[in-house]
Write a structure and sequence with these properties.
62% of the residues lie in helices and 0% in strands. It is globular, with a radius of gyration of 18 Å. The chain is mainly α. The protein has nine helices and no strands.
Length: 190
């Protein structure tokens, strides 16, 4: 069977993921693109493909590389599922640690402040960001925010405008959210 078109699509998808990761305000696009890439890798391509990967462990290393460019805390359940695949074929300490961190992140029994302290995250976040509902809507929220804002005008203080629009869009979707500035009143943002 010829997998050329699948490999080309995967290459273009990976290229877009890398580009989005290095472009201010575009990382959210990787939420969707990571799903596309994972589906190609796990559903359409065989366990080995000469010139691309030798075995399933090589294939899942591509997943691991992809996840390094994704906002995993915006897609924790999806990231956990992908990391579990990685763990089943190519277990390693970094992946195990990432799994533990994400599982604790979505666990409502783990206090958000305690999670931040344990994992070295200096800024507090709204606990709604850990919810399944957040994960279901965040891509659409960020897409709507991007449509309302011009990221080319990113400047000092732009984060407040971004957070205000994001708060409005989330409210339209039935989620009450507090921005990083509201959650961290003693921190100055620019």
């Amino acid at each position: 069977m010829d997998y050329k078109s699948d490999v080309e699509l995967l290459g273009h998808t990976f290229g877009a993921i890398v580009k989005n990761n290095s472009t201010m305000g575009m990382q959210w696009k990787n939420i969707y693109l990571s799903r596309v890439a994972a589906e190609i890798l796990l559903s359409y391509l065989p366990e080995s493909l000469p010139g691309e990967f030798d075995d399933m462990a090589g294939k899942v290393r591509l997943l691991e590389q992809m996840l390094s460019y994704c906002p995993e805390t915006d897609m924790p359940r999806a990231a956990i599922a992908l990391r579990e695949v990685i763990d089943s074929y190519a277990p390693n300490d970094d992946n195990t640690l990432a799994l533990t961190k994400l599982r604790e992140y979505i666990d409502p029994a783990v206090d958000a402040s305690a999670w931040c302290e344990k994992w070295g995250r200096h800024l507090q976040f709204d606990p709604v960001e850990r919810s399944e509902r957040w994960e279901e809507v965040i891509y659409d929220v960020e897409k709507e925010v991007a449509q309302r804002l011009n990221y080319d005008e990113w400047h000092m203080g732009f984060c407040y405008r971004y957070w205000s629009v994001k708060e409005d869009v989330l409210a339209d979707m039935g989620l009450e959210w507090h921005s990083p500035s509201a959650m961290n009143p003693d921190v100055m943002f620019d």
